[in-house]
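Example A, followed by Example B.
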Amino acid sequence: MDESVEEGGTDKQISAQMHISMSTLRTHVQHIYGKLNVGSRSQFCRKAYWE
């Protein structure tokens, strides 16, 4: 999933690719953001790229 987010995929594209609902995707994304202590997609991408 992180590659799809880094590549700039929309929530709709990513959820379709993963065969999950958009609300499930958003829940997963929020959990990942919490674990990484980031608050946005751009912060996530920076952290994923640099660390």
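Example B, a separate protein, is given below in the same form.
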Amino acid sequence: MKKEIIAHNFIIALLILLIGSEAASAQAEPSTDDEAVAKTPIELNEKEPPATAGAESEVVAEPLVERATSKQASADTTPAKEPSKKGASFGVEDAQPEKDDAGSEERAQDENQYLGALKQEPGLNIGARLYTQWMLRDEPDQPSNEFRINIARFQLTWTQWKLVKAQIELDADQLVEDAGDTALLRDFYVRVQPRYWIGARIGQFKRPFSRVELTSRQTLPFINRGIGNDYITEHLLYGDRDIGLMLEGRLLKQIELDYAIGVFNGMGKNAQEIAPGGSKDIAARLETRPVKWISLGANASFKYLDREDLLGLIDRDNFASVDPREYPNGYSEYDFMAEHEWMAGFAWMTGIDAALRVEKLRIVLEGMLGENWWFERYPKIWSALLTLSYKYKLIKGWPLWVEPVFRAEVLTVLRSMDDWRVRMWQLVPGVNLHLGKHVRLMIEGEFVLTQGNEAMIDGSRKDGLWPNEWPGLFADFNRLIVQLAFSM
């Protein structure tokens, strides 16, 4: 009961903040309908002063793990360029979207994942997000018709001297979903960036892996990130949030070549080191914008599980499902480690990605390939993803934009590189309606088709690592999701 009261009060506070912010921005909305040419992604980065002999540039780089929000991008007041007279061309130079909040969100999507200026004004900044959903689905053992809270988060960011940044983000939707002892803490880190080419952060934050994972929900044009992200990045712990230390910076200004490399505990968010040996994971990413209309990325994640780390995978509620005839003296965590000892050791995952913009059409491609340490007999896995989105103004003079979206993805589990066992296909058509800078109505259909038989885990529970735990049954399912997203 106490947990429900806390969650209820937290969500009411978020609504008050969001409604107040929307009202304030509506009063400040300019009445002009004049159009302006959008800045190119390179122009959006803070202009770097020319180098002088014996002096370092003081420009600071934006971190890879967080794209600039629309609020940050709209703070750039660099004059717009005159439109080209050469006619339409491949790229963003000649695009002429309205000067508006939705346009600034598009430009935020195009900026490099980590680097650019520390754009927040010095001092304390407050952010909040509340995403509510209505869902119809035909998944086994899931409600077919459900209202739910997808995201309820509160964020505090403190920036000083364009040098130091501290951020904390709390996640209240865990309370609403009754997620057991899951902690509220989502992000908590301190970042120092003394020069554009070197910076460091320590705390809990996203590993530098996967463009889709590193894209903020505020600029992601989809409700979910996809089946590859769910399994490879989050379930296998190659990405997502973790506790660690990361170095980041910009190597070459001319092509915006950015890097990030970090060392992490390896057991995911809000998880302390378990094994006495203290082995660590490493994740690294390079990203560049060689020309204005394309951004390219490559990343790798290296994982090492000690035998004692397997204790962090245990859900003791599942012990009741173990056949007592197999373990007449009861099933313990030591039995779990012995049964799953093959999961311990070294594993790796690699990925490449690209983001392109042709006028108002944005295209994202991403592929991942590596080791599937969750299975013993089927240790390889790969995924490929394509997303398309096209945002245009619905009514001139009104703060309304429509954004059709489409995602296609395939996830494949293999015994070897030429012998696949399970293949899942996902198609996601949808449309987003942007209402001003703080509100989005998002409508999506998710359709999943499965080929092949379920990959069984040799020497473990017969229905998967644990019954009802992903990947569980590789089965077809369909969803219709309607989400109302408030953010500030």
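On Example B: Residues 2-48+56-80+89-306+344-487 form a domain with the Porin fold (CATH 2.40.160.10).
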